[in-house]
Design goal:
Layout lengths: L2 E7 L3 H12 L4 E5 L2 E6 L2 E8 L2 E8 L2 H18 L12
Antiparallel strand pairs: 1-5, 2-3, 3-4, 4-5
């Protein structure tokens, strides 16, 4: 399974995880505890970990096309949930 990772500089990691997990919990399988979240999509998954001063994000999918799609979906939602804070999201495969 192809995987992409991003380390995003932010002091709002836990808040972003909470918002994303709550947002997707009504239609996807979501697990959240102790500064971590896991969201399971039809074609892959997203793991989020809050650390001091950053948010670690990993997405995996069945194929490269699905991975590209999940990168975009997760990035757009993170940017929307961050409010006025600007996030620099650079995916590394």
């Amino acid at each position: 399974m192809p995987i992409s990772r991003a380390e995003i500089v932010t002091e709002s990691g836990e808040k972003l995880i909470n918002r994303l997990c709550k947002h997707w919990a009504h239609k996807l399988e979501v697990k959240q505890e102790d500064g971590e979240g896991r969201i399971t999509f039809d074609n892959g998954s997203c793991l989020l970990q809050a650390e001091q001063g950053k948010l670690k994000v990993a997405v995996e999918s069945l194929d490269e096309e699905g991975l590209d799609h999940l990168e975009g979906v997760v990035a757009r939602h993170l940017e929307r949930m961050s409010g006025k804070e600007s996030l620099d999201i650079i995916w590394e495969n």
